[in-house]
Specification:
Oligomer: single chain
Radius of gyration: 23 Å
Largest sheet: 20 strands, antiparallel
Number of domains: 1
Distance between the termini: 44 Å
Order of helices and strands: HEEEEEEEEEEEEHEEEEEEEEEEEEEEH
Shape: globular
Helix content: 10-25%
Length: 377
Amino acid sequence: MSATRFLIPAAGLALAIAAPGLARRGQAQAEMANQHLSAIVLLQRWAQAIYHFLPAQDGGCEPTFGEWVDNGDGTFTQVNQTADCTRIVNTSYGGQFDFYDQAITYSNGIREQLQVRPVERFNEAPGKVHFDHRFSTGDHVEYDQELQQETALDADGNPISGLNFWYALISRGSVRLASGQHLQFELRQTKSFDCYNFFNDSFLPEEVCDEWFVFNEELGVLVPRPDRLHVSLGDGTPVGTLDLAIPTADPFAGVPDFFQNVTGTFVLGNRTMDVLLIPNSPDDPDFPRWKFWQTSGRGYQGMFQLGVDFSGGGQAFDSRGRRRRLQFAARWNRSGIGTVILPNGQTRPGGPTSGALEFGNLKWSGLATAFGPTPGL
């Protein structure tokens, strides 16, 4: 099936209006709404995949963390359970951080098999690691993580085995859905608070500092650049792209900074949309999370309010001239499915493009770590 299905509205937003001019305008507004619903699903799914911030829903199970069991063949096994009754079996091979498996069974019966294997070593530590997620639904996610590091040296300038200054991480890979849809992605993350290698009492090379850090005029120091995500929808020539810059509060732990806005751009077909995720106030009982979503494009601006799970609603208005004419109003659930109201009063079912919808529904544990579960940790 062609990857261009990303352009087909999942809920069918085509309009049948008698007047051709009104029909064209109504169709354009419906496509604009469709792009918004596609964008919010992609934003929600990637935020969860990267930061794992949505808590497991209470499914009536008691969370458990099992003891590691020595299988006598160089492998160790641990069985855990989450509050939503997801069962996770960890298998560690020889206690290596970057050599492990996870067998995950979700409460709805879907199974995910994660296999993590080292590709390259760097000073006797993980350097490049391959991750392979296979699902009982036929979906497949795989990627490589390249750890950007500098070797720690002893007083004589000799490398200290297994000890490195880890300052950045690059993840590159693809998502292939059972329907034939395809996404490619690259995530660039700074992992140190600054470009000073405290092991060696020296700074990283200038070109490295420029790539992963930026000067903060208010603080007067270099700070980590935001996490930078690029996603291409489709094989070969992409039918859409998503680019996000997500500030972090703790780059090493991968914690978003909810005192700063997320900025980005979503392109679908020939439509370009700027996006802005705005956090809620620290006084909000649901803090921290992203509560408001602003969009802008050719001739329009949108303002929407988000729930904890990225469900939400709001309106987009014409930004040309003094009159704030409605382009569309929408309300949607976590999957991006909902209702779109057009200026002519027509109410239509709305939803993301089919590829975005399927990716949003993918039961995926998210990006894993090169430093996986091992006995003793």
